[in-house]
């Protein structure tokens, strides 16, 4: 009887072992055949060997801060201060909550005369309100980032802005054209067709009216040729920098605007590659070509 029990136990163990092995095989097959989850979308600026990452939403907000400064004739230093401030206050996301009655990119408070909740939640209004105060700070361009930001924000944590200086400086340099070809975005495939109306509306919101011509591709895509050199206001030395500022702005808003390709100078960023690569031909000075996904 004991021998029968032993043989029965061994048989049961063999059955269990076979089942476990079968399950392991099935799991291995499914793992190999199942599609890998898509990589997280991200945008980044690489300057002097350091890479500073943002989400696509943060990137398009940073693009607004930069374009607004360019539109107002403010220096890149102002953009650095604005980005560092918004990173600290809201993580550079237009949130509708905060400490007490604080809301928006800069966590401005209606009770502190920054405007109504509705106004502050308009990122264009909030950005201009921030710059309105910043330009009143004497010598802000020479002040440490944290001192300039604190002069505007009057925060309870005045030293906190300093931790964002590296990222803010790199992104400001890219978005104002001082660091060409350094801002890239790795994005999923477009979720819809891009439209010239939506893109030009975003341009006008951030920069104002720029000369744009629109053409349709055989594949249903749309290409906009933008005279970004017009942002230089006749200064020939700044034409290339303004073109790179607009080109990298276009990459920063690519997720929102369904952009698939941006070209300027002799470089092209494509959504499929996610990086800047040499172009087959050099574009005229100041010209930026932006291609939107087709339907």
Structural account:
The chain is an alpha+beta fold and 295 residues long. It has two domains: 134 residues; 102 residues, no CATH class. The protein has ten helices and nine strands. The strands form two sheets. The protein has a six-stranded antiparallel beta sheet with strand order 4-5-9-6-7-8. It has a three-stranded antiparallel beta sheet with strand order 2-1-3. A hairpin with a 5-residue loop joins strand 4 and strand 5. Helix 2 runs antiparallel to helix 9 and helix 3 packs across helix 7. The termini are far apart. The N terminus is likely disordered.
Give the SSE map.
Blueprint: H1 2-33, E1 42-47, E2 50-54, H2 56-72, H3 76-90, H4 117-120, H5 123-134, H6 145-153, H7 165-175, E3 183-186, H8 196-206, E4 212-216, E5 222-227, H9 239-252, H10 254-257, E6 259-264, E7 267-270, E8 276-278, E9 287-292
Antiparallel strand pairs: 1-2, 1-3, 4-5, 5-9, 6-7, 6-9, 7-8
Brief overview, please?
The protein is an alpha+beta fold. The chain has ten helices and nine strands.
- Based on helices, strands and strand pairing, what is the structural class? alpha+beta
Quick check: average pLDDT? Answer: 90
Helical segment count: 10
Shape descriptor:
globular
Largest sheet: 6 strands, antiparallel
Helix content: 40-55%
Strand order of the largest sheet: 4-5-9-6-7-8
User: Strand tally, please?
Assistant: 9
Low-confidence stretches: 1-6, 13-17, 22-31
What is the H/E order? HEEHHHHHHEHEEHHEEEE
Report Rg.
Answer: 26 Å
**Share of residues in strands:** 15-25%
What is the end-to-end distance? 76 Å
Question: How many distinct folded domains?
Answer: 2
